[in-house]
Automatic annotation (TrEMBL):
Catalysed reactions listed for this entry: a fatty acyl-[ACP] + malonyl-[ACP] + H(+) = a 3-oxoacyl-[ACP] + holo-[ACP] + CO2; (9Z)-hexadecenoyl-[ACP] + malonyl-[ACP] + H(+) = 3-oxo-(11Z)-octadecenoyl-[ACP] + holo-[ACP] + CO2
Keyword Magnesium in record: no
Signal peptide: none
Lineage: Bacteria, Pseudomonadati, Bacteroidota, Cytophagia, Cytophagales
Pathway: Lipid metabolism; fatty acid biosynthesis
Record-level Gene Ontology MF annotations: 3-oxoacyl-[acyl-carrier-protein] synthase activity
UniProt keyword Acyltransferase present: yes
InterPro entries: 3-oxoacyl-ACP_synth-2 (IPR017568), Beta-ketoacyl_synthase (IPR000794), Ketoacyl_synth_AS (IPR018201), Ketoacyl_synth_C (IPR014031), Ketoacyl_synth_N (IPR014030), PKS_Beta-ketoAc_synthase_dom (IPR020841), Thiolase-like (IPR016039)
PROSITE patterns on file: KS3_1, KS3_2
Primary gene name: fabF
NCBIfam families xrefs: fabF, PRK07314.1
Family indicated by similarity: Belongs to the thiolase-like superfamily. Beta-ketoacyl-ACP synthases family.
Stated name of the protein: 3-oxoacyl-[acyl-carrier-protein] synthase 2
């Protein structure tokens, strides 16, 4: 069976370092940190009092107030990014076959703020069981894909993937497979998360997963640095339009890059900790490269999971060295979470967009906030510390690993007709 080719024809972004794709990419390349004191709630009593929040956003500039009130922020973020991606792809008055167009979205947590608000209102109002009639639709994680499907009239496959921090990457993989199998022509994919809330920060603090560098938020996310102390919570959304190649060519679409492979694996080890020998990370990269029909030496750039945790960072780079061997030291590697924080279920979409734009502009965004070498991390690795590097980027790979041992990797290639 011959597979159809899948290309990227639209991007949209709402991130802690930019509320559109061009601003996001400019700040990513320039090494701008999105971390700052939390403004969404009073975090004074929390061990972590900062995050990478979306900034300067007036929802009513994008979504009418009455409509926005029915959506949790993670859905609002999805709509804003998807609108930009749809426009970027040229789907204004021009529409695809709506029966062959779908939405496959990713989110790890969904409507946490809506759930939190309703429960707190119940607990503080005399235990009177009065809930917002939109509570359930706002909270459930599949509401994002449902809202997008309704918004654009897409009647093809429509669902959410949930695999913690690998959610958006799983969504992209499903979209990729549905298109190359001929079951869709066009798919809005990507991911969104809005977990900078009392419960989100409190919960990750309880896990001891977050950085507590409150005196210097902008330098707190420091992947691969000896003194890293946890990840920085982020929020936002990135939307990616995947399209069957001949369909895109027939309508004269702009093509950013081609998606050529995907890999999946499970650590089968622990609910929050990665496999101590990096077995899942090794297998997912191997599976992705083989699925793409490539050799390890074909990869030019890896956007790592790289969360800035003491345990996770060295295991991922050791898995890279184990699989790629000597080629590990010829590639560029970077963690853009050093700037954006960790978007949880939306991370894979943001980092895939970074790979796609790196291919387009032939520049690798940096891993910022490197101050002290970690003796457990091989100095021969080019981790693109502190400054972007121009280089040939023909093929880029993005890794995402989620609580529960979920591993997903995707591969993008410079488009050649």
């Amino acid at each position: 069976m011959s597979f159809k080719r899948v290309v990227i024809t639209g991007l949209g972004a709402l991130t802690p370092i930019g509320n559109d794709v061009s601003t996001f990419w400019k700040n990513l390349v320039e090494g701008v940190s999105g971390a700052a004191p939390i403004t969404h709630f009073d975090a004074e009593k929390f061990r972590t009092r900062f995050a990478c929040e979306v900034k300067g956003l007036d929802i009513q500039n994008y979504i009418p107030r009455q409509e926005a009130r029915k959506m949790d922020p993670f859905v609002q973020y999805a709509v804003i990014a998807a609108d930009e991606a749809m426009k970027d792809a040229g789907f204004g008055e021009q529409k695809p076959d709506l029966d062959k167009a779908g939405v496959i979205w990713g989110s790890g947590i969904g409507g946490l703020k809506s759930f939190e608000e309703e429960v707190m209102n119940f607990a503080t109002n005399g235990n009177t069981p009065r809930f917002n009639p939109f509570f359930i639709p706002k909270m459930i994680v599949d509401s994002a894909s449902g809202v997008l499907s309704i918004r654009y009239g897409f009647r093809g496959p429509n669902f959410i993937t949930v695999s913690a921090c690998a959610s958006a990457t799983n969504a992209l993989i499903d979209a990729f497979n549905y298109i190359r199998l001929g079951m869709m022509d066009v798919c809005i994919s990507g991911g969104s998360e809005a977990a900078v809330t009392v419960a989100g920060v409190g919960g990750f603090n309880a896990l001891k997963a977050l950085s507590e560098r409150n005196d210097s938020p902008e330098t707190a996310s420091r992947p691969y640095d000896k003194d890293r102390d946890g990840f920085v919570l982020g929020e936002g959304s990135v939307a990616i339009i995947l399209e069957e190649l001949e369909h895109a060519k027939a309508r004269g679409a702009k093509i950013y890059a081609e998606m050529i492979g995907a890999g999946l694996s499970s650590d089968a080890y622990h609910i929050t900790a990665p496999h101590p020998e990096g077995l899942g990370a090794f297998m997912v990269m191997k599976n992705a490269v083989e699925n793409a029909g490539l050799a390890p030496e074909d990869i030019d750039y890896i956007n790592t999971h790289g969360t800035s945790t003491p345990i996770g960072d060295p295991q991922e780079v050791k898995a890279i060295e184990k699989y790629f061997g000597e080629h590990s030291y010829s590639m560029n590697i970077s963690s853009t979470k050093s700037m954006t924080g960790h978007l949880l279920g939306g991370a894979g979409a943001l980092e895939s967009a970074a790979c796609i734009l790196a291919i387009c502009d032939q520049v690798v965004p940096p891993t910022i906030n490197h101050f002290t070498d970690d003796p457990d991390i091989n100095p021969r690795l080019n981790l693109t510390f502190n400054k972007a590097q121009e280089r040939k980027v023909n093929v880029a790979l993005s890794n995402t690993f989620g609580f529960g041992g979920h591993n997903a990797s995707v591969i993008f290639k410079k488009y050649e007709g």
